[in-house]
Amino acid sequence: MTAYIIKRLLFGVPVVFGVSVLVFLLMALVPGDPALAVLGPYATDENVRELRERMALDAPLWERYGTWIANLARGDFGYAYSLERPVAEELGERAGATLLLAGAAFFICVLLGTAVGVASAARQYSWTDRFLSLGVMVGISTPAFWLGLLLIVVFAVQLRWLPSGGMVSIDGGGSVWDIARHLILPAFTLGFVAAAVVARFVRTQMLEVLRQDYIRTARAKGICERRVILRHALRSGIVATMPVLGLQAGFVIGGAVYVETIFQWPGLGRMLVNAISQRDLLLVQGGVLVVAVAYVFVNLLADVVQHALDPRLKR
Amino acid sequence: MKKFLRNPLTVVGCVLFGGIVLLALLAPILPLADPNETNLRDRLLAPGSDGFLLGTDTLGRDILSRLVWGTRVSLAVAAAATLIAAFVGSLIGLCAGFFRGWVDTVLMRGIDMVLAFPYLILALAIVAVLGPGLLNALIAIAVVNIPFFARSVRGTALTVSAMPFVEAARIGGQPRLRTLFAGVFPNVLPVIVIAMSTTLGWMILETAGLSFLGLGAQPPQADLGSMLADGRKVMLVHPHVGLLPGVCILILVIGINLIGDGLRDWLDPRLEGGAHSAPGAATSATRAADIEPDETTGDALVRVRDLEIVFGEGEASEPAVHDVSFSLKAGECLGIVGESGSGKSVTAMALARLVASPPGRITAGSIHIDGIDVLSASEETLRGLRGARVGYVFQNPFDSLHPVIPVGKQLAEAVRAHGGADRKAAEVRKRVTGLLDQVGIPDPEKACRAYPHQFSGGQCQRIAIAMALANEPKVLVADEPTTALDVTVQKRVLELLARIRREHGLAMVFISHDLGVVREVADKVIVMRRGKVVESGNVVEVLRNPQHEYTRRLIASIPRLGAGPEQSLGLDDSGKTEGGT
C-alpha cells in the first residue's frame, strides 16, 4: 500500500509540473505587456519598469519560469495590486473558507448521490426509480447559481430560516453554530447539483453489478435483498465510483466559484472572480495554481482509496 | 429513428428543445417588444401585468422579449463552442487513436494536462488572460471541453483502427489519411454525436455561468446568464427578474439532456437489448392451477411439473423452457444434459427462482421443494429455501464469489443467513474453517482472510461448494460446476461432490453438457434440447439404449481416451451458461 502511494505520488510530480507550466504560460502569454497588464492602465512608467525588472520580463521564457518557481518555493506568489497585499497572504486567508464549503458540499454530494443511485437501481423501473431519475435529470440540468438564488428567495427571504450570505470570514470569531447556519444553503446548493451526476453514475454502476454472477450467489445464499444491495452490490459499486468522485471534486471546486459569489462566501472562488474583473493577474495565477494542485491531489487520493478498497488491484 | 422516438422522454426532450430553438430562431418576426427598450415608468412589473406577460426588469424592459433574445445568444454561443470543441477534440482523438505510438502519447499527455484543472477554473483562467467578453467566454468554454471529445473519440478510434478493414486498406496501399477520414471517421461519428449532445447542455450552463459572473456577455448585449445576474440585484423584492432566466436555462438543458439520453440509447450498440436491466431478487412467476402430488411423486423432495419459462416481453418473447417435469427423492442425483441454449441451466436456476428476471419469467407449471410451493412463495419463504434447503454451486467459480470481500466473510455470511444471526463470532468462525477443511482447502484460517483472486479456479469452486453446504441443505444444485476448470481439476471436484453427496445424503441436481460426466455422478438423467425434455430415465439405461437421435449424438460425443478427433456436433463448449441469454 505504501509502495503504491509513493508510486502514485511520483506519478503526480509530472502532472504538477505540467500544471505549473500551463499556469505560467497562460499568464506569460497575456497579449500586450504583462507588466502593464498586471499594473493596469493607471500605472506610472517607473512602476512598470520596476515590475518588468522584478518579473525578469526580458529574460528568456524558461528562465522566467525558473525564477517564478523559485519564488513560489519561498512562498512568494507575488503582490496582489488590487488588494495591496501579497498574494500568498490572501490565498492563505481564503483557502480555509473554500475548503470548508467544498468539503461540506462534497460530503452532501457523495451521501445524497450514492443514496439516490442505490435506491433507484434497487427498484429499477419502479415509481421510486422514475421519480428519482426525474429528480436526477432536473439536478443535472440545474444551473447552480440559479438554484442558489432560488434557495435564498425561499429560505432566507420568504421563510427567514437561514441567512442569505454575509459570512465575513471563517476564522473571524463567529461561533460554530453561526458558521454552520451560513454554510447550509451554499453547501446544499453546490452539493445537490454535484450529487445528480454521482447518482446517475451510481445507478448505472449498480445495475451493472446487480447482473454479476456473485450477486446471484449472494441471493442463492438466502440473505435478505437489503443486504444483497447494500453489502454485496454497493461494495463493488463504490469501488467503481471512486474515479468519478475525484472528478466531481473538480466540479465542486468549480461550482464553488458561483456559490461563493451568490452567498458572498469569503473563499478563493469569489477572490478569483474579483481578481479577473480587476485584471489582477498575479492573484489569478496564484489562485488557479493552488486550486489546480489541490485538485491533482484529490484525484490522487481517489486513486489511493480505490486501490485500498479493491484487493484485486494489490499485488 | 422509430426507436429513437419510442421513448416518451425523448419526445418530451425534442418538444422542449425544439420549441425553444424555434422561438429563438423566429425572434425577429415574432410580435415581441424591443428587448432593449427601457421604460422607467414600468420598472419591475410583476408577471401577468398589462402588456407584459412575464413582467419587466430593472429598466422596465419586457422580460419575455429579453428571454427570447437572450436564449438566442446563449444558444448561439453554446452551439458554436460545441462545434469548435467537437472539431478540435475529435481531430485529436482520431489522430491519437489511429496513429497510436508517439502521436498518441504526445496528444494524450497534453490532454491530461488540461484535465488536471477543474474545468471551470481553467475557463476562468483563460478568460482572465483574454479579458471578459462573450467571444472570449466562448473560446474558454470550447477549450475546456476539448479533452472530453478527445478522450471519447480516441477510445472508439482505437477499437475501429484495430479492425481488419483498416489493416486491409494499409496493405492495399490506400493513403493513411484517406483511411482515417473515409474509413475510421464514419465509424466514430456516432460517438461524436453523442458527445455533442452531452456537451451542448454543459455549454449552455457554462456560458450562462460565466455571464452570470460578469465575465461573459457585457451590456448592452445580454444572454440568459447576464439577465440572471441583473435580476440578482433586485432578488429580495422582485425575485421573478432573476428566477425566470434560470427557469429558461433549466428547461433548455433538460430538453437537451433528454434528447442526449435518447441518442445514446439509439446509437450506442452496447445498450442493445435492454442491457441496462438488472435482475430482481426472484424470478417473477405467474402460476397455473396448483397440482396435487400423485402417487409416483408423493415422497419426492423436489417436484417440478410442466415448467414453462419465457424470456423477453411481448413480441420479442421466446420460451426457453417448456413442459419440463421431473422429481427427485432424498439421496438421488438427477443429471440434466443438453447443449448450450437447451434450457438446462435455466431449469436449474428456476428451482430457487434465480433465473434473471427481467428478462426471464416463469409462466406456467409448478415447483415444490421440501413441501414449499416455490412459485407462489413470498420473498421471505424463498429466503428460507435458498441456502437452507437448496444449495447452489455455479459454473464459473471466479465470477460467482464476490471479488472484494474476503472469503471467510462470505462464508460466515452464508452460515449466519439462516437461524444464526446471533450466533457467537467464534462459533461461526469454527463452522467456516470446518467447512473449508471439509472441501479440502489447506490452512483454512489463512484462506478466510484471502480474496477469491488469490485462489485457483479449482480452489474457488471448492470454496463455493463449502458455501453451498453452509446450512446443510437437502438439495444441492450444481450448474456445470466443472466446465470452467482444467480437466485434472474437474475430476477432483467431481470426486468431492460425490463424496459430499454420500456423506450428507443429499439430493443433487447436476447440470452438464457432458453426458460422460453425468454418467459418473447421476442416477437419473433427463436430456434437454431447445427447452424440451427429449428423453429421460435411469442413466445406465438411457446410455445403453438411447431412444432419441439427439441422445445418441450426445453419447457419440463423449470423449474417449485414445479415440479420434471429436465429432463436430455444433455443441458449444465455450463455457458460457445459457442462463444469461
Describe the structure.
- The complex is a heterodimer of chains A (315) and B (581).
- Chain A is an all-alpha fold and 315 residues long.
- Chain A has helices at 2-28, 34-39, 45-54, 61-73, 87-122, 127-141, 144-158, 176-210, 213-220, 225-262, 268-277, 281-309, and strands at 79-80, 85-86.
- The termini of chain A are close together.
- The model of chain A has no long low-confidence stretch (mean pLDDT 86).
- With 581 residues, chain B is of the alpha/beta class.
- Chain B has 2 domains: 4-27 and 58-271, MetI-like fold (Orthogonal Bundle), CATH 1.10.3720; 327-353 and 367-580, P-loop containing nucleotide triphosphate hydrolases (Rossmann fold).
- Chain B has helices at residues 2-6, 8-26, 63-99, 101-115, 119-130, 134-161, 164-171, 176-212, 224-232, 240-267, 344-350, 379-385, 397-400, 407-416, 425-438, 444-449, 457-468, 487-504, 515-521, 539-544, 549-556, and strands at 284-285, 302-311, 318-328, 333-337, 360-369, 372-373, 390-393, 475-479, 507-512, 524-529, 532-538.
- In chain B, helix 5 (119-130) packs across helix 6 and helix 8 (176-212) runs parallel beside helix 9 (224-232).
- The interface between A and B is large, with 81 and 87 residues.
Record keyword descriptors for this entry.
heterodimer; A: 315 residues; mainly alpha; two-stranded antiparallel ribbon; 12 helices; B: 581 residues; alpha/beta; MetI-like fold; Rossmann fold; 2 domains; five-stranded mixed beta sheet; 12% strand; elongated; disordered C terminus
